[in-house]
Prior knowledge:
Chain A is built from 6 helices and 2 strands; from the N terminus they run H-H-H-H-E-E-H-H. Chain A is an all-alpha fold.
Amino acid sequence: MMTWSKKLFITLTSTLVTSAVVATPLTAPQQTSVDQLLKSYQAQGASTPSITAGAEFWQTKGDNGIACTACHGQDLTQAGKHIKTKRAIEAMAPSVNPERLSDVGKVEKWFKRNCKSVWNRECTATEKANVLAWLATQ
Amino acid sequence: MQTANMTNNIKKLSLITLVVAASSTAMASDGGFFSNVFGGNGYQPTGQGQEIYQEECSACHLAYPAPLQTKDKWLKIMSSLDDHFGDNAELAAETQKTITDYLIANAADTNGESSKLSKFARRSRDNGSLRITDLEGFKRKHDEIDKMRMVVNNPDVGSFSQCSACHGDNAQKGIFDEDTVKIPNFARWDD
């Protein structure tokens, strides 16, 4: 049986091949940590990651009345701004910011904090897998 | 041989210049000589944790110099990171302990006491707030600032927690002298 991480890989690869606009591929450290995280979410019972669901989740307002975009903005290739402190937040897109998604610990730390700030709870493994799969394409 | 002598002379000269400069700074300020030389403008953090503190906390706001808050307030702040002024700022247990220890060691009423900055916390009446920007001393120093115009609605500032926006890189070193203030989009701040 094919694991969903393999399925996702195939989907991503075929998207890249067939798409007219080819997204910048992840750097090796980014790819390594994304793979590791997706594997761990799968082990926690996540369903097959959906890039579309990830994109939608990013835009959805959580229980605290804000969405991820409140601080990260609409254009992930641009810097965002913390909604309260107004601190600049570097661009989230891994294609323009090589630091993004390259450190497993940081991804987990910010998922934990920010899900609680937006949703008032931790995100499920499926939600995190979806968002990560989508972010990886940005 | 001559080069070595010259280097020595230069070293001596630099030392004299340093002492003279330090003395004049001390005389111009309101604290004692030693407190100004060793902890007056800026502060010398002790113990482990300074780097981790910077990295973790300055992701959202200035990593406020530890002498700006008392030990008991730092403890309260660090033990309620799950609701950090409305945001979740939880840290891994180990990181949290390192930062807490660092802040307590350098607080206004511990090692940080020798820093000029500590007077803001030590001389402020407790108004129940854990925010450094709510300290009486902080408010007094900023009472001429039009908060809405110069801070909140200023696209390059936004909040009092962005100290560096007006105090520049000095803020991170604990230097908040009035003559180095430059409010973005406003003419030079001059009292």
